[in-house]
Amino acid sequence: MVQGWYKWRVEEKIDDLPVAMASNTFSVPYPTRGYFSVADANLMAGTQVKEFQLKLNRYFGGGKCTLDELFEDHYLMQEFLCRTIFPECSRWAGRDISKQVVIFDLSGISLSMLSHWPALNMLREMLANDQLYYPERMHKTFVINAPAMFVTAWNVIKGWLDPRVISKIQILGKNYSPALLKQVPPQNLPAFLGGTCRCSHMPGGCVPS
């Protein structure tokens, strides 16, 4: 597994990705709030930011990018998390922080999106790679505003996942705030998700649309 991990990093040039850190001037790959290693910022056009990153940030795909670009952006985010965010969180907590809480909001998703096989195959490859090359990085994942039809897609998706990963995923409908607040302190959860954080000092607030 370690040999495969190393081979993948070399072939995909993972160590060459422009990961924003305190020691460089690379742009953050997504909006950041409350860290010292990188400033509070939104993803903005710049010399180190590729055009497809801006498209993905605005539309998260939408047929505007290639699969290679989508994967590159995903791995850049993962590397930023591992090299910058986790180390800072660990210093502040006084213990090792190496896992993340993820919230997926399915508001507005349609049946055609959930049954689009090219997208599902892309998701399957991404999940498989994450389990191989970024193992045990998930603490908890919440899927909120999940429509009833999502259950059908979920039955397909969970067949691609390790049982340990499945146990960390919670599917929620519209009454999701109590579950989120059990995991995330209200001051760290955006107000539109039931918390108290607004980040009014930044354009777009906590999570720019």
From TrEMBL:
Annotated CRAL-TRIO domain residues: 52-201
UniProt feature coiled coil, ranges: none
CDD domains found in the cross-reference section: SEC14
InterPro entries in the record: CRAL-TRIO_dom (IPR001251), CRAL-TRIO_dom_sf (IPR036865), PI/PC_transfer (IPR051026)
Pfam families from the UniProt entry: CRAL_TRIO
Protein name in the entry: CRAL/TRIO domain-containing protein
UniProt organism field: Linderina pennispora
Upper classification of the organism: Eukaryota, Fungi, Fungi incertae sedis, Zoopagomycota, Kickxellomycotina
